[in-house]
Amino acid sequence: MSGQPDLLQLRTLIDHVFSTRARASGHKDLPDLCDRLGLPQPPPQEGNTKAQRADASLAACPDTDLPAVAEAILAGEALTADERNGLQDTLWAGRPHIPIPARTRRELAQDLDLSDHIRYADRFMALLDSVWVLEHDVFGEWLTNQPSLRSNIERHFIRFPDDWSTETLFEELGAFEAPHPRFGQFLERLASSAYLPDEPAQRAYVETANRHLQPIGAQLRHEGDQDGYPLFHLVGHGRGTGRRPRNLIFATLGKPDIRFTSALDNDIEIAERADQVLVYDRPVGKEGLRWHELRAWWQETRQIPQDQDAGKALYDRMEACLPSNSPGQRNLFWLYYRIHRDHLDDAPALLPEIWIHWDPKSVRARGDNALKNLRMDFLMLLPGGHRVVLEVDGLQHYTRNQGTEPDSGRYAATMAGDRELTLRGYEVFRFGHDELRDRDRAHRLLTSFFQQLLDRSPQQRI
Questions:
Q1: DSSP letter, residue 288
Q2: What is the radius of gyration, based on Cα positions, of the chain?
Q3: How far apart are CA 326 and CA 422, in angstroms?
Q4: CA atoms of 321 and 330, how far apart (whole Å)
Q5: Is there a contact between 183 and 105 (Cβ–Cβ < 8 Å)?
Q6: Whole-angstrom distance, CA of residue 82 vs CA of residue 272
Q7: CA 369 to chain centre
């Protein structure tokens, strides 16, 4: 499930943090502060107070830049837990996340034994500090003579663990009412070796958690290793493959000449005509492959100084691979990036002419043993390991002799390839070329389609 962050709320939260930092800075430091946070430069000092200059800088910041400013604040500024959580909750609400109902949370807490975690008491408290607000006021305990939540946890859950159950801990933390993304972060960090450096204990926790997550279409999935320990991420387990791509071969202008430089490590290279193919070989994270990540790879490998220049060059290179005789395919590509232009950085990248299978021999040479549908029109890598293939079908998909005769064999081969991909965890969506030939009609169709596709909850992907 995903949406858009509440930009008014985000601006208010940024204003609170930024104005506080501005008041603590000198006039001469304000431009550096704005630069660090990605805000427009303030007006000159002459005749303006620091507050006026700060207000003018934030007012000049467009709504579309606010998420990046919030990320810069979270990455580089010393914040209170309240400030941090407010910014995080507002940002995360606009990103894909997995809904975990209150009943599932409570039943999980009732079943969960955290005794392994509290063997590492300092790490456990650091985990709680990274997710929850344990002290709203650092002077509160001293002024009111009331123990803080931190003190109560240390006393009643760590030193005297019989005092509080895990359910009581969750209640005191506010975990049952917390926003879905924050609760998901909590579950992931409970599985992390940074806080629980004991693999059998990690796996025991994950097994318990997954008993409650599986019925709602989610799981803590083992997705690699970190410092020798398993790394777990919370994902939907609908149509995800459970594997991360190693090499994305796309935007090809012809069949690539591929060879393994290390078969043991799955390292490949394009032996000839490397300029006719793109190979993205960086890790794809749990959020899938987003446009800003694809653009950053292109920018760094091509040494292009400006983001905007790199984005345009990458788009042009991908567009160049699209067949000139398929207006529908070209319209889909153009309209996707047009529809998402206002929030393109965090939108999933749409990869054209993607190789799903590869065989050094031709289909004719393989005969009946040939792989079906070697190359697909488009691929999107979505959060949670979900892989979506988009195809634009012209007459060549089900006819022969230049579209004059039906070809049931060709159609059957196409459907067989789709079934194989579906069983391997892909979703395949096919459009008729005539649906996309007219750009205005295609715009309406695709706007609705992509909104429904990208806004689905994990349960709806099952």
A1: B
A2: 26
A3: 25
A4: 10
A5: yes
A6: 56
A7: 37
**Cβ of 59: how many Cβ atoms within 10 Å?**
10
Lookup: tokens for 363: 């289909």
Length of the chain (residues): 462
11-49: burial string, b at 16+ Cβ within 10 Å, e else? bebbeebbeebbeeeeeeebbebbeebebeebeeeeeee
Average pLDDT of the residues in 429-440: 92
Q: Are 187 and 220 in contact (CB under 8 A)?
A: yes
Query: Is residue 458 over pLDDT 50?
Result: no
Question: What is the mean pLDDT of the segment spanning 5-31?
Answer: 91
Six token digits for residue 324: 């000139």
Q: How far apart are CA 328 and CA 191, in angstroms?
A: 46
pLDDT score, position 110: 97
String of DSSP letters for 59-71 = HTS-GGGHHHHHH
Comparing C-alpha atoms, which of 354, 436, 345 is closest to residue 387?
354
- With a cut of 70, say whether residue 139 has pLDDT above it: no
H-helix or E-strand spanning residue 55: helix 50-59
- For residues 83-93, b (16+ Cβ closer than 10 Å) or e, as one string? bbbbbbbbbbb
Domain boundaries, the chain: 7-92, 102-236, 248-461
What sign does the CA torsion over 62, 66, 67, 68 have?
positive
Task: State the number of CA atoms in the 13 A half-sphere of 173 facing the CB.
Answer: 27
| Amino acid found at 278 | L
Kindly state the greatest CA–CA separation across the chain: 88
Query: pLDDT, tens digit, for every residue of 263-308?
Result: 777 778 887 777 888 999 888 876 789 999 999 999 999 999 998 8
pTM of the model: 0.60
Residues paired with residue 379 on neighbouring β-strands, in sequence order: 351, 389
Distance CA 218, CA 211 (A): 10
